[in-house]
Amino acid sequence: MENILLINKPSGITSYDVIRVIKRKYNPGKIGHAGTLDPLASGLLIVLIGAATKESEKFMSLKKRYIVKIQLGIKTDTGDLEGKIINKLEIPVLNKIKIEKVLKKFKGKIKQIPHIYSAIKYKGKKLYEYARAGIQVKIKPRIIEIYRIKILNYSTKELELEVDCSKGTYIRKLAEDIAEKLGTCGVVSKLIREKIGKYSIADSIKLDNI
User: Fold this and answer.
1) Exactly one of 38, 77, 203, 208 is catalytic; which is it?
2) Could you tell me the end-to-end alpha-carbon distance of the chain, in angstroms, rounded to an integer?
3) Which domains does the chain have, with CATH numbers?
4) CA proximity to 91, closest of 72, 107, 110
5) What is the average pLDDT across 12-30?
6) What does the alpha-carbon distance between residue 49 and residue 62 come to, in Å, rounded to a whole number?
7) pLDDT one-digit tens code per residue, 149-171
8) What integer is the mean pLDDT of 99-104?
9) Helix (H) or strand (E) holding 127
């Protein structure tokens, strides 16, 4: 097998499920991936095998491109449609000029507070473990960079964006923050990772075809 595999992860499974499938089929020895995708998300997952696993940080630091659909008017505890609805708000009348004005506020280097439902560790535990236990913790903001945000489509209840961003960007949190600035709330209804650095989903293979 090649040291690097570009896999098109389907929605509905974890990134580690992809690793399990490859392990079971090929028993490649040391194996890992360069950047987790949420179960809801699909798209490019870089799988590293053997000596390539030592280069994990290099791959994880590369710029990412996502296509994200944001369902407006609802908020969930997880920031996506898999969570429990915790709020509903009216959706103001939107137009392209208003949306672009809001998106400009998110371009460049910005502070982002990671989502409570994330794998970031706090005092030895992952944040989502605190969230599931109902324990509130103070999460420090982190500097991320949004290189580009492009409107692909929008309607009265949904917004679709193409986002180029740095390592460490939480798209679910970005979606929530954008919806808030638009005067409502929102959740990720669909998320596709299209690129990691020079690597593209167009060059990936489906998990069923490996």
Assistant:
1) 38
2) 10
3) 4-61+197-209 (no CATH), 64-195 (3.30.2350.10)
4) 72
5) 91
6) 18
7) 999 999 999 999 999 999 999 99
8) 98
9) helix 127-132
Task: Compute the average pLDDT of residues 119-143.
Answer: 79
Q: With 0-12 CB in 10 A as exposed, 13-18 as middle and 19+ as buried, what is 123?
A: exposed
Judged against a pLDDT cut of 90, whether residue 39 lies above it is answered with no
Q: Is the pTM of this model over 0.90?
A: yes
DSSP string, 9-78: EPTTS-HHHHHHHHHHHH--SSEEESS---TT-EEEEEEEEGGGGGGHHHHHTS-EEEEEEEEETEEESS
Please, which pLDDT band fits residue 210 given cuts at 50, 70 and 90? confident
Is 38 part of the annotated catalytic residue set? yes
